[in-house]
Amino acid sequence: MELNKQKIIEALREVKDPKSGEDIISARMVEQLETDEQNVSFSLLLPANMDSGTKNSLNFACIAAVNSVFPEAEVHIHVKTTVVQTAPTSIVPQIKNIIAVASGKGGVGKSTVSLNLALGLKALGARVGIMDADVYGPSLPTMLGLQKQRPRIKDVDGQPKIVPIEKYGIPSISMGYIIEPEQAVVLRGPRLAGIIKQFFQDCLWPELDYLIIDLPPGTGDVQLTLVQTVAVTGAVMVTTPQEVSLADAVKGMNMFRLPNVNVPILGVVENMAWFTPAELPNNKYYIFGQGGGKQLAKESNSVLLGQIPLVQAIREGGDNGLPAILNEDPITKEAFMNVARQTLRQVAIRNEAMPPTSMVNVQS
Ligand SMILES: Nc1ncnc2c1ncn2[C@@H]1O[C@H](COP(=O)(O)OP(=O)(O)OP(=O)(O)O)[C@@H](O)[C@H]1O
Question: Where does ATP bind (predicted)?
């Protein structure tokens, strides 16, 4: 009688891919499983860059798994190496890292963190740009004091291109430069996708180490379009400390972690972590509770990139076009610089440990 294939598959589920921790059946590493009365044969698909020691131990683990259910069976494994898929050619090859700044809900300070993070990275010597992808409520023009500014259009080989507007040494683009913020339109589907694509393709971005993307809150069309348009290096999540916002934040974060999206979470910034009155700079009042940032970092297996206090100067700076990191208050400045340093570190770790993110290919 033929050896039972189902039993063999179940046994092989005990063998895990050491890299992902997933079992080799779910990871689709086993192909063309054939059995007869005595023999079991299959192909084992292993990445070309896997070292030979790991390949051998996986091979032995497969044989042992089959023999655990059929001790007499002869196991023939054909190891096939798969070429690691290279990332598709980028439409913005001059940009090394694309960092999405996201939050579960609105008003947690995502735009404030995006801009100050961009300026912090710049202060550390990187070439940085910022894209305000919050097409529904663009706030970058106000935060940079660039209301009513319009980007220049430059003709490049007969094609009109948008020139990002530079302020404080960083080029930026925002829907708010194109339409009045109060006209923020409800764009959906293809039109919205077109605008986000234009922000990459039709903008004259210079050579950049980091492009920071300020996303709208939650999970929606912009997020989806972004991951379908470019390879996002990683996401920074912004949250406030209270636990009630955690469920939203987790939802926002999980969108990046969907298996076919697979954008690494670089870490969490806890904004409005405590209130510090200007006249009592050493006092901390935890008015929104404590622990939300840490908790979210734990949920995502990532790290807390930093905590930003709730201080009046941050709000005023945002309204007056003078980002908080540039003002003289050392506590605020250091809080944002710390976030920038930690982000830099996490991007370096991510780029060391993982291949480039693949763009999401969704057929609609
Ligand atoms: N740490 C802080 N201290 C004081 N005010 C802050 C702080 N962070 C953000 N704010 C203020 O809170 C308001 C909302 O911040 P911001 O626009 O950055 O949030 P957001 O999450 O991007 O909002 P939206 O969802 O509307 O895009 C702004 O007025 C901003 O200046």
Answer: 104-111
